[in-house]
Amino acid sequence: MAAATPPPLLPTELSTPFLKRISTPSLQEEASVGVIAGVITVVFITLLTVLVVIIIYLYKNKGSYHTYEQPEADVSVQMENLPSKGEKEEYFI
Question: Is pTM beyond 0.70 here?
Answer without folding.
Answer: no
